[in-house]
Amino acid sequence: MVELIIQLVNIFLLSLALGYILSPMVGKMLLKRKNQIAENLHEAKTTRQDALENAAMYEEKLADFDKERGAILARAQEKARARENDIIGEANAEAGRIIDRAQREAALMRAKIKDDIKKDMVTYASAAAARLIAENMDVEKQDALIEQTLNEMGDKTWQN
Q1: Burial class of residue 153 in the structure, from the number of CB atoms within 10 Å of its CB (0-12 exposed, 13-18 middle, 19+ buried)
Q2: Interacting residues of 142 by C-beta distance below 8 A, sequence separation 6+
């Protein structure tokens, strides 16, 4: 039993000596580890804060993008409406020019038809005169022939 007590005392003294020798090294390692963990925590907090700031900035940029997109769309729609109005105005102007041209052509056609009718009247009158001269008619026959020619041509011919 004395040996057991001596062994226990030896173990106690050896533990005390080892504790005294090793405790500064273990303390330094624990302090170093503690500082590294604190540094990692601080770095994680700053990284998280940066991430939150970036997320807020991106949200703001997205909101600005939506506003800008809406403004661009509104400008594009307004330009499209203006272009549509321009095209409609050009089409109306072209339609007006076409109508004016058609009216001028119709007036020219009316004038040409009037000229043709006048030429026909001259031709009928010449033919009537030729008949009168050929037959060497008397006044009564000449009047009847002129009356007949006028009836063939109609009253409307003389009114134009």
Answers
A1: middle
A2: 132
Residue among 115, 118, 125, 119 nearest 150 (CA):
125
How far is it, in rounded angstroms, from Cα 149 to Cα 125? 8
Q: What is the pTM of this model?
A: 0.41
Helix axis angle, 2-135 to 139-153, nearest 10°: 170
Q: Nearest 5°: phi and psi at 141?
A: -65, -40
Cα gap 4→41, rounded to integer Å? 50
- HEC string of 21-36 equals HHHHHHHHHHHHHHHH
Please give the Cα distance from 112 to 104 (Å, whole number).
Answer: 12
Residue-averaged pLDDT of the chain: 86
Q: What is the mean pLDDT of residues 88-112?
A: 93
* pLDDT surpasses 70 at 132: no
Q: Using CA of residue 151, residue 155, residue 157, residue 159, what is the dihedral sign? A: positive
